[in-house]
Every structure is written in structure tokens, then in C-alpha cells.
């Protein structure tokens, strides 16, 4: 069970910087204003499926950047936040060739989850995705982990979470999962060799 952002996908394709690094220059939206008005105020409800991304974002943009369409900002955001970490992808492919099932376990809303799987074609390299808007809960909430167990038909001790956010790792362990904090000091294949017993 692999986290996405900060593990498999990390920043802008050309340089790995944050997706919003040039947001002010490219779309005339101050990043700090977008964070305050959208991500801090609205994102929690969106990422657990209580609100839809586009209409919520459109309402915010009418206040802070009325000339910007929500669809255009989302397209820019998703494209700029799509750098696949190739060594991780390579290790995923090797793991699956070795008979290990690999799922994405991630806090996402519906549109980006679809983008990851369909546009970025990650569906070709993983067995599936479990995400927060689908689960109606997010990591590190216990409900997310229970949803994931049911979604993939596995018991807690059969699952290994690799995640770059320590509270998520701790929460998974509290639910009986195996879990490793992704701090980039080890390759994914090394982690799997240590934790997965065929």
C-alpha cells in the first residue's frame, strides 16, 4: 500500500519543484491566498468526498481570481504535480513481477485519483487505488485503513504501508498494519525485501 504524493509522485515534471512554485507568474494567483482560501478552508471536505472539487474551487476563484476558470487551474495543477519518481516505479514493477500486489493508498479527491490512474497511466503499474474521497475518510483516520482492508480483501497484518507522513505510518501500525516511514534513505525494493515474506 503505497502513498502517492512525496513517494511515487513528487512535484513538477521538469524539476521536481512544488506544483504551485510559479502559480503567481503563470496564472496570476497568489499562492498564499489560494492556500488560505481554498486548501485551508475547503480542502478537507473535498478530499473526503463531502464537496466536489470544481464547483468549490470555482466559488473560491470568483473571490480571489475572477478571470481564472476552475477547469484551467485544475488542469495546470494536475500537470504540474505529475513527476513520477522513476526508481520507485521501477521497484513497483519488479515487486509485481515477483508476485507482490501493489496498491496506491492516498489522500485524493475523485478527479486527481482518476488523473493518476488514467492520464498518468499508473493503472498499468499497480493493482488498484484506494483513496480518501472514495473511502469518505482520510489517512490517518482509522476508517481509511479499514476501508482499504475491505477494498483489497486483506487482513491488517497482511498489509504494508509505505508513506512519507509519520502520523499516517503510526496510525497504520495502530490498526495492525506493517508500516514504514518513507524518508528516502532506503530504496523501495530494500523495504519490500525486509518486510514481505513470499
Helix and strand topology:
Layout lengths: L22 H5 L3 H9 L3 H5 L5 H12 L5 H11 L5 H12 L5 E4 L3 H10 L8 E4 H4 L6 H11 L7 E4 L2 H9 L3 E4 L6 H8 L3
Parallel strand pairs: 1-2, 3-4
Helix pairs in contact: 2-4
Q: Compute the average pLDDT.
A: 97
Sequence of strands across the biggest β-sheet: 1-2
Largest sheet: 2 strands, parallel
Helix-strand topology string:
HHHHHHEHEHHEHEH
Please give a quick description of this structure.
With about 200 residues, this protein is mainly alpha-helical. It has helices at about 25, 30-40, 45, 55-65, 70-80, 85-95, 110-120, 130-135, 140-150, 165-175, 190-195, and strands at about 105, 130, 160-165, 180.
Structural summary, described in words:
It is a single chain. With 198 residues, this protein is mainly α. 48% of the residues lie in helices and 8% in strands. The chain is built from eleven helices and four strands, in the order ααααααβαβααβαβα. Helix 2 (31-39) packs across helix 4. It starts with 22 loop residues before the first helix and ends with a helix. The mean pLDDT is 97.
What characteristics describe this protein?
single chain, 198 residues, mainly alpha, two-stranded parallel sheet, 11 helices, 8% strand, globular
Amino acid at each position: 500500500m503505497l502513498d502517492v504524493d512525496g513517494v511515487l509522485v513528487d512535484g513538477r515534471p521538469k524539476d521536481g519543484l512544488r506544483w504551485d512554485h510559479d502559480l503567481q507568474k503563470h496564472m496570476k494567483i497568489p499562492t498564499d491566498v489560494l492556500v488560505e482560501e481554498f486548501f485551508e478552508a475547503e480542502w478537507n471536505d473535498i478530499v473526503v468526498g463531502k464537496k466536489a472539487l470544481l464547483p468549490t474551487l470555482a466559488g473560491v476563484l470568483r473571490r480571489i481570481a475572477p478571470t481564472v476558470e476552475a477547469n484551467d487551474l485544475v488542469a495546470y495543477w494536475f500537470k504540474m504535480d505529475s513527476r513520477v519518481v522513476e526508481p520507485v516505479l521501477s521497484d513497483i514493477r519488479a515487486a509485481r513481477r515477483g508476485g507482490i500486489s501493489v496498491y496506491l493508498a492516498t489522500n485524493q479527491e475523485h478527479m486527481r485519483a482518476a488523473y493518476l490512474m488514467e492520464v498518468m497511466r499508473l493503472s498499468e503499474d499497480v493493482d488498484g487505488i484506494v483513496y480518501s474521497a472514495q473511502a469518505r475518510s482520510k489517512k490517518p483516520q482509522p476508517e481509511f485503513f479499514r476501508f482499504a482492508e475491505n477494498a483489497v480483501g486483506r487482513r491488517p497484518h497482511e498489509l504494508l504501508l509505505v508513506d512519507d507522513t509519520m502520523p499516517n505510518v503510526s496510525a497504520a501500525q495502530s490498526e495492525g498494519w506493517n508500516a514504514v516511514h518513507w524518508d528516502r534513505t532506503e530504496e523501495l525494493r530494500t523495504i519490500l525485501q525486509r518486510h514481505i515474506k513470499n
